[in-house]
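Repro:
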Amino acid sequence: MPADPDRRRVYDAEEALRELLSQATSTPGQPVPVLVGGSRVVLPPEVRFGDVASLQRYCEAVMGLETIASRWPTRPVRVRVRKGARKAHWESPGIIAIPDEEWAMRETVVLHELAHHLTPGSLDHGIEFQDALLCLYEAAMAPEVAFVARVLISS
């Protein structure tokens, strides 16, 4: 059995979610509903970041949301630029490393790393991580995003 049996399923679901977010906002000013799990859903635009300072501010704002702050103990997080361009990752204690690349400077990637930050005892992509990720999607993006991600992860 792989060390992280849920990893591929979560990554595939996130890739599908990013594709749906792109489809839903392909026409500026006119949201396009997407069909997921038999439901038509209008998704919000995904935040894209221009620099690490804006990522840092976003992470601090998300960690300060009532839903997040009341559920997880206060854990300061610091964002740094990752030298390698191929992946983002969470580092202990409380550092998120994001490449300064377009694919990584987006909300879903940052929330994925924040989910690792909220579940440091569990570095895999199992149920504890998935629960944190879905909570972040709902609180920071929209309940519709959490719904779509839940459907994609479970399928």
